[in-house]
Amino acid sequence: MANEQVGTLVLENVSKIFPQRDGQGEVRAVDNVSLTIHEGEFLTLLGPSGCGKTTTLRLISGFEMPSAGRILLDGQDISHRPPNKRDMAMVFQSYALFPHMTVFNNIAYGLRIQHVSRSEIKARVDKVLDLMGLHNLGERRPNELSGGQQQRVALARSLVVEPRVLLFDEPLSNLDAKLRVQMRSEIRNIQRRLNITSVYVTHDQVEAMALSDRVVIMNEGQIEQIDSPEEIYRRPVSRFVADFIGRANFLPATVEAVTDEQVTMTLLGHKVTARAKFAPAVGDQLTAVLRPEALLLKSDPNLPQAVVKQAMYLGASSEYIVDVDGQELVVVESDPSTEQIFREDQMVGISFVAETVHLLAQ
Amino acid sequence: MNHLIRGRPIAEFRRIIQDPVLFIGLILVVLFVSITILSPIYAMVEESLTEEGQELFDRYLSSPVYRNIIRNTLEMGLIVAATGTALGFLLAYIQVKVAMPFKRLMHITYLIPIISPPFAVASAVLLLLGRNGIISKGWLGVRYDIYGLDGLTLVLTLSYFTVAYMNLKGMMQALDPALDEAATNLGASKFRIFRTVTIPMLIPGIAGSFLLLFVEAIADLGNPLVMGGNYEVLSTRIYVSIVGLYNTTAAAVLSVILLVPSLLVFMVQRYWISRTSVVSVTGKPTGTPQQITHPLVRWPLFAVGICASLFILLVYGTIFAGAFTKILNVNNEFTLDHFDFVINGYGSEAMKDTTQLAAIATPIAGLLGMIIAFLVVRKKFMGRAALDFATMLGIAVPGTIIGIGYLLVFNTPNEITLPLLGTIEVIPKLTGGRAIFGGAGAIILVFIVRSTPAALRAGVAALSQIDPSIEEASISLGADNIGTFRRITLPLIRPAFFSGLVYAFARSMTTISAIIFLTTSRTKIMTHQILNEVENGRYGNAFAYCVILIGIVLTAIVILSVAVGTTTGAEKSIEGGA
Amino acid sequence: MKKLSILVFCFLLAAALAPAMVASPAAFVEAQEDTLTVLCTPQEDWCIAMTQAFEEETGIETSYVRMSSGESLARIRATQDDPEFSVWWGGPADAFIAAYEEGLIEPYEPALASVLAPNAVGVDHAWHGVYVGALGFCSNIDFLEELGIEAPTSWQDLLAPELKGNVAMAHPATSGTAFTAFWTVVTLKADELEAAEAGTGYDENGAPTEAAIDNAFEYFGELHQNILQYTRSGSAPGTMAANGEIAVAIIFSHDCVKLQVEGFEGVVMTTFPEEGTGYEIGGMGLIKGAPEPEAAKMWIEWALTPEAQAVAATVNSLQLPTNPETPVSDLSVKLEEVNLVNYNFIAAGTNRTAVVERFDAEIAPQPVE
To answer: Does domain B50-279+293-332 have CATH number 1.10.3720.10?
Structure first.
């Protein structure tokens, strides 16, 4: 646990400034980011494109040098250490396999650089080929492999050198949806098994949720939130996070009473009490976050009424856009039974699970 | 704000220093380019701006005689550029779009002029079509006066159209056939497609080829020397100024006058054409180009293509025949005397010297080209555009200018005076027979300077196709920059490296204008010897030199393809594994 | 396989580099006198034969560069601080006189200087004559027939309109032959002026006057309209005539005879201008600051021997030898049969630089109507 406090990889107030294309002015791609990554942790940098997540990863890997701040690995300042001296290995979005080398030679590459003995290279490469389910493919060339196999080789190549930190730059974005899911769990399993500290960049929130111990949400070069996937989903710190992770309905609310951290207000005609991480005063305007699955529809005239604007039956769930007093809300009903399927223009009663209400300051 | 902008290059600089090998490499490359390319050009411009030089400028630019010479030069450049580009375009179009027999063979004949020595074409054309030409006088009974602009146009077009042909052929093949298909779908006729789709898409390629040929033509020295007749151009004037009068100032002034259009064209090519290029090379055409099969279009075009092939074969056949006959067209007796002269006799020295110097320059130029390409494409540092530009000057500038610049800069040792150590000779005397290596040093440098640009362009094109993360992957796995370059980059750009080497060797073996002022008693260069033989009408010896020179270049291509390989190894596997 | 190919490549590279490395120290050696570099002006094959003969005779490794007179003079001038040649052999003597006046030649008196005719020995022994040749017109017989004219026998004949674009000569800036032709016309113009009014053609030193030179420029200005091309090398127009590219070449007659002997018998013929033709005395001199002075002196001594002068005939160079003991070929020009002008070599040498520069500026670049 002490180890965890120190952190394997620490970013201290790191900034990266690029000049703008036209030569005028500059872009703060990474803006004063501080971050601690713990031993064996799987941390994901998540955000929309241009949020600085890839730059952050490239700063960690050493392909970019920070304009300000420090990067520490095991307590040592590596901010200006060249990337090949950092004991990290990166898995690239494009796999970046060496097209002129066989799979075996691709994987052995890092070991050869380290001047590992021939017999040990053979043993270690074979082991990792086995681990990745690539046996018999050692003599193939990268362009003779399927996308998934190429991805496995790329991962194997990085694993075999046993780096201190493993870096992933959107490694699954070139795979089709099905393979992506499969590779996702493979990466997760292997990372757990080998307990390698990993930093993963993606713009796919599902991938981030599925893989990570902790997720870092970035926006415009800054960190919005660092938390476990569950925490981020349930308790986003900002409207940006709430909107970026999953889907969210934002309802305006006025604070009616405050006791301890419990705030009372009226939402969709229901009086609810929820916890706030901040200390609002009576009369303050707040935003309540309600996930689509927290909203419930029922043909019940006693409930506040909504009009179904759009209905989509998706098999495992049904998705509706409903209008409540001029505000459109997204509602997802999982496993809908036949009588629970509503048609467009139908009037329905709407309610929600009060415990899931999350409050944001205005 | 401001300090941050300034701070960035420093950070990048710091990063370069962090890899000492890269840093030293960069410094060496910059030094090399400054010394071997920039300083001679600078010295020449400086020489032309002396008081004496300025007087000459006034004199030349106000004299109707010299204005006429300048006009001749530009006129010849424009005509050759137009005919060469037109021929290149036509032949490329026929190759790519017209279905016909013997395509491959015709293609090969179009490539021959690249590896052929200068004067070969001019001499053969003189023998065939000259005033006493085998065809003109012998068959047709016409004493055709080929000396002057018409002869130069023919010879220069034949020598340089290949550049346009290759350029445009590559572009036409890269054109997305879907465009044609789309146009056909919309009901356009073949001719309409040609006019409204093909031509506009190729405008940048056509303009680029035109400019390239223009520069080559106005810089050409050998052909005007042999068949210029009374048609005086700047390059021959420069030549006489040096060779006959040794007036370096006059030569420098004339060179600067020649430099202006060359550089202008180079800039236009670099900053305008390359930006407006609409053809995106995706690597994989989405379909096969539609072929023209209409007999009324097909067969006339076929005739054009085959005529061009036959004419080239005729010219080179004449060279070959001339090398084995006593005096072609006068005494057609078979003889090996000319080869004896070149191989065993006096010519052997030039043959060995030239081959050896070219063999030294070739790997250096090839590697230098790849290294500069790597730095320019992959590394961020201040002045990388300038480095690219400076390297390209090696070929953008007419050869005579490089040659004269070398005489100005390297004819005496270059020294610097340091406060404590006194005067140190930094670069010894490089030109002339008394220089180190008998003047071979300057010649090797000129070979390198003249061939690196092509290797650089090939390298840049190849590198741009390679995902930078492949190199990053290598670095991320612990390799340093040099190791990555050697193990990953170089093998992947092997085809470019190969073509860079082949070009460097061929260019070195056939260059004349840049080294004509630099040959010495100790270092003899084949092209210079060929010029001597051609000038004195000893075509037999000249043709024997040409045949041997072509033989050497072809042998070198074979050796290089075995030693370096023409593939990356990435593509081989496609058949291997499937 | 890949390793092997890299090895092969490295090997080739090393093979290419090794001779250069080994050869380099030789280039550094300062005048060890086992080498000699000759600046050679006559035709290439004669240069080859001479240097080979000298090498066999003395064991001195002899290399040469062939340059026309004008080129040679320009090159010696340009490299005078650190000359690359030790001896300059061949080419009309006026170039040697010009070079000596500029301080580019070191006088040296060889033992055989005494056997030479007085006009073949330069002032202060700056140069010595190695051969003599007369200027002539070399015509293509068929071509003339086609044009319907006789072979030219006077300088005036060359201006015939039929010959427009059908005459070639070398550029006086590069070629001693062409300069000899120019100075011959200067001499003829001086004679004309002198005949009209004494003192207008020649000055008190016997040198042609400016007026004579101006008249010669006028003549060459007219001739320019008939010239196809000014070649670099003096003998090149002869081959053009032989190849039927032109009708008449202004060259040394021995170069025309050489062509006849070497396969163009019946193709070309030699004529001489009646009003007088110029001649050259092929000079030879020690270059000032020569890197190999001793070897150069050996060459100068040797080149005057009958054996050395006999080399010429072996390569069909039919100039007249200056050593009276050298056998003379029947094919050589008989000087007593042609009308030689009173060629003032010293005046020619003195005026050389100014004249060629003027020629290059005024005549050569002019367009032809």
So the answer is: yes
